[in-house]
Amino acid sequence: MFLKMRNLILIGLLLSAQFLSAQHDTSAVEVTRKPFVVQAVVPATLLISGIVLNNSFTEKSIQKNVREKLGNDYHNGMDDYIQYVPYVEVFAGDLVGIQAKNHWFDQTKNMAITGVMTTLVIHSLKRGVGKLRPDNSSHHSFPSGHTATAFAGATILYNEYKDTSPLLAYNGFVFSSATGSLRIMNNRHWLSDVMAGAGIGMLVAHAVYYWQPLKNWNPFKDTKNIGFMPVYNGDELTMVATFRF
Q1: What's the whole-number mean pLDDT along residues 103-118?
Q2: Is the CATH number of domain 41-216 1.20.144?
């Protein structure tokens, strides 16, 4: 069932991207960059709110109410997969010809840098805070890694397409929000874990796109018609080369 759902999601993304490419001008757009402090307002608010709610009576009450309504045996494994949908959408947009902010190699490079930085921050905090998960399975609850990964991807998607295809740009936040919600519903994380994870993922991705580390490193700069598309076959994630004529 999960495999069929994943295939439907990918097909839907490609169809929606094709529709969006017909609705928006794909020419380059000249934009004025916002100060980083402005970009950091939303993620910083989420992170601070998560810290404030951490181990509070409020989040424990919310978790209890959610599990009572869903049932103690409820589990939906889609959060393991939809956290990566925003990343797929970035390359899907390239594949159907929607004008992105960056070359496909720079997109991949920014994803890698964002992923490494996010992972370092998340796992350092998990081990440092040592918060017990709501299902009592480990002391690595705060913050949520799945949510951080999903919101980092959504922020990358937003930065790539906000000026040429707003609908596609904001679409990633639907999947990242669903990922965070499922982490709570599956009893793997508290509300504060999810809020902090979302804030960290967004903050790191915005920082990477603002300061653009390794900006001038792109050995494929003159090969815009070549790209790569992530493909998940049910067992492993691979990259497939694409060529646009």
Answers
A1: 96
A2: yes
